[in-house]
Every structure is written in C-alpha cells, then in structure tokens.
C-alpha cells in the first residue's frame, strides 16, 4: 500500500510520471489539475469557481481545493493507496491533508520530488501547448511554485525522495520506482 505525493515545478513531467507510476504501483492517480479541468469541461459550479484562477496561473482557493480532495480521497478506490499529483500546493493544504489522513489512521509513504533545471521547464511547457501554457502564465505558475509550493520540501523533509527528472519517461519512472522500493 503506497500513499504518495508528487512535488515538482510545473513542466517537470509530474503528470506523465504520475500516470506511469500509478499503473505500476496499482494505485489511483489523483490530479487536482485534472479534476479542475474535468469540472470546467462539464461546466460545474466547482469548475466555474476554479476557471479564472487557472487561467491566471494562480492557485484556486484552498477551501475549494481541499474539499474537492477530501471528497476524492473518500472514494473507495483511494482506500488501497493513492498518488496525489499537484496537491498539496502549499503548507496550508499539507496541514489539511495530514488531518484527513490522520483521521483515517494512515500517513504518507513518501513525497517524491521531481528535480529539473529551470530552462528545461519553460521549454517543456511551451511544447505542451495547454491553454494555460502561454509564456506569461508559465512565468506566473513558476513564481507561484517557488513562493507557495517549494516550502513543502522543508515541511516534508523527513519523507522526501528526490528524483532526477531529466531523461526518458521510462528512465525517470524506473528511478522513482527504485528509490521507492522498500518504502511501501
Ligand atoms: P496542474 O495541472 O497541476 O498544473 O494545475 C493546473 C492549475 O490548476 C494550477 O495552475 C492551479 O490554478 C490549479 N490547481 C491545481 N492543483 C491545485 C492545488 N492543489 N491548489 C490550488 N490550485 C490548484
């Protein structure tokens, strides 16, 4: 049983690695970005709340995000473990996650940090061509990462597993799986 959080700057390849690792480790891939995008696509009230923040590269407010994650983690498939991609994004969210897990008497197995040089990040994001991947929004998302999300590396210092995220998808996921061996 593994309960993982993936942390890394936008463009680090977290989403791709999360998809591969969730398959290999047989746990659901829970991406808050994907959940928001699905809600926007379905024109739900949650999607309406999230849209303007996402378009600007800002974080969606914590109350909205935390409740969405709380609901998702209560689903039956998440009881066998999970891989969180894009959450938590700040220490306030990390506190809420600890509280949710603590109430269930469980804790995180590890926090996987994807390490990529900055110039490579911008190149990868411009390649991806998502609607929030324009240069201004990319810069804002990187700044938000540095200001809000990077402090999580300190917060989770005792369970960080740092992965060199340069290379092919397979090389990187092999590295991650190797580094996680013995922890589940
Ligand atoms: P991502 O797909 O993880 O890059 O997320 C895309 C966008 O969704 C982010 O730029 C935020 O606007 C929003 N988002 C995703 N996850 C979170 C989160 N944990 N907290 C707040 N906003 C989030």
UniProtKB/TrEMBL annotation:
Superkingdom classification of source: Bacteria
Any one of the GO BP annotations: AMP salvage
Amino-acid positions noted as binding AMP in the UniProt annotation, renumbered to this chain: 32, 37, 58-60, 86-89, 93, 130, 141
Catalytic activity of the protein: AMP + ATP = 2 ADP
Keywords: ATP-binding, Cytoplasm, Kinase, Nucleotide biosynthesis, Nucleotide-binding, Transferase
Binding site for ATP: 11-16, 128, 167
GO molecular function: AMP kinase activity; ATP binding
Enzyme class: transferase
InterPro entries from the UniProt entry: Adenyl_kin_sub, Adenylat/UMP-CMP_kin, Adenylat_kinase_CS, P-loop_NTPase
Pathway as given in its UniProt record: Purine metabolism; AMP biosynthesis via salvage pathway; AMP from ADP: step 1/1
This protein's GO CC annotations: cytoplasm
A Pfam cross-reference name: ADK
Entry's EC annotation: 2.7.4.3
Residue numbers spanned by region NMP: 31-60
Location(s) in or outside the cell: Cytoplasm
HAMAP family: Adenylate_kinase_Adk (MF_00235)
Functional summary from the UniProt entry: Catalyzes the reversible transfer of the terminal phosphate group between ATP and AMP. Plays an important role in cellular energy homeostasis and in adenine nucleotide metabolism.
Family classification: Belongs to the adenylate kinase family.
UniProt free text on domains: Consists of three domains, a large central CORE domain and two small peripheral domains, NMPbind and LID, which undergo movements during catalysis. The LID domain closes over the site of phosphoryl transfer upon ATP binding. Assembling and dissambling the active center during each catalytic cycle provides an effective means to prevent ATP hydrolysis.
Binding partners and assembly: Monomer.
Protein name: Adenylate kinase
């Amino acid at each position: 049983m593994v309960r993982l959080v993936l942390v890394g700057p936008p463009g680090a390849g977290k989403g791709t690695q999360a998809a591969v690792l969730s398959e290999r480790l047989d746990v659901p891939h829970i991406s808050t970005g994907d959940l928001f995008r699905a809600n926007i696509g379905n024109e739900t009230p949650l999607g309406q709340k999230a849209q303007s923040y996402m378009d600007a590269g800002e974080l969606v407010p914590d109350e909205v995000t935390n409740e969405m994650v709380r609901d998702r983690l209560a689903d039956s498939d998440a009881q066998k473990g999970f891989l969180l991609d894009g959450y938590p994004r700040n220490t306030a969210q990390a506190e809420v996650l600890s509280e949710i897990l603590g109430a269930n008497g469980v804790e995180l197995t590890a926090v996987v940090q994807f390490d990529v040089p900055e110039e490579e990040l911008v190149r990868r994001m411009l390649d991806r061509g998502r609607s929030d991947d324009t240069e201004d929004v990319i810069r804002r998302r990187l700044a938000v990462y540095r200001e809000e999300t990077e402090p999580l590396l300190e917060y989770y210092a005792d369970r960080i597993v740092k992965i060199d995220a340069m290379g092919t998808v397979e090389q990187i996921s092999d590295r991650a799986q190797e580094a996680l061996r013995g922890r589940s």
